Every structure is written in structure tokens, then in C-alpha cells.
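Input.
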Amino acid sequence: MKKVILVGLLFILMINIGGRTTSSILIPEDAIRYRIIANSDSTLDQTTKLAVKDALEKVMNPIMLTSTTKEEVRNKLTSSRDLLHHTVAQTLQSLKQDETYQIQYGMNYFPEKEYQGVTYQAGEYESLIVTLGKGEGANFWCVLFPPLCLLEGEKTDSEKVEYTSFIQEIIHSIFHS
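Output.
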């Protein structure tokens, strides 16, 4: 009888929670975001976007991973502007893409995004934006500082994170005890 009552209470709790699987958070005020917007959603333009992302990560990793404050990152990014332009231009040239691009740093609007079950709210964020061509395609985005996307890019596939539900564990323990 105790098990039935406990399961009933857990069921009511789950209904009250609303079955939400995502949470909404604000990006920390000291964050610097990063976005690469593809020319279009064509396979070629999306592949180009990812090549530019990979090339930029190689030059930004040392900058981001050795910086401890937002001001330090901001200073290093602005002083590395020529390097960033050169990296994008070289990448496009190596892909034989005669595409225009823009790199801008400052306050930029980001739409609401969901990543790994977390919804990041829309708003104006200090950010580095790389726009390829018309900038009408799907984009890559992450948080440069703290260096969430660069750290994630260094992980191997074997470093998967497993999320569990507290309620699911209780129900499992009731029926498997």
C-alpha cells in the first residue's frame, strides 16, 4: 500500500512540474558569445561555415584558454582582429569560395537558443559575429567566455554526460526492490 501511495504522490508531482525537460537560463553578464552565420542553408554553405568555425577555433583556443577575465578576452579579441580576418580569408580561399564575409565585435542580438536541454534567452550580448555572404543560413553559436564551446570542442566522444531523473530513480527503486 505504501508503494501505491508513493507512486501516486510522485505522479502528482510529475504532473505539477509539467513534464518540462528544459530550463531557461540567462547567459552570465560576463559572457562573450560567438556566432558564425552561413550564407545559406545549402550543403556547400553549411560545410563552409563549419570549416571557418574549425579554422577560427584553432587560432582562438590559445586566446580563450589563457584568459581569465572578460576584459582580457575582449582585449585579445580586438587585438587579434587582423588574425581573425586572415584566418577566415585563407579558409575561404582554400575552399575556393569567392564569398564575402564580415567580422564584428560588440553588442549583438541573439535569438532564443536551446542547447543540451537548456534554453538560452534572447537578448543583446557582447559577442563576436562572423557573417558569411548574405548571412541567411543556419548558424553555429556558443559562449566564448567562459570558454564553453572551446572546451566542449576538445572533448572526445567517450566523455558523454548522462542525465538522470531523481523521480525516475525513486520509481525504479520502488519497483526493483
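The first strand starts at residue 23 and ends at 25.
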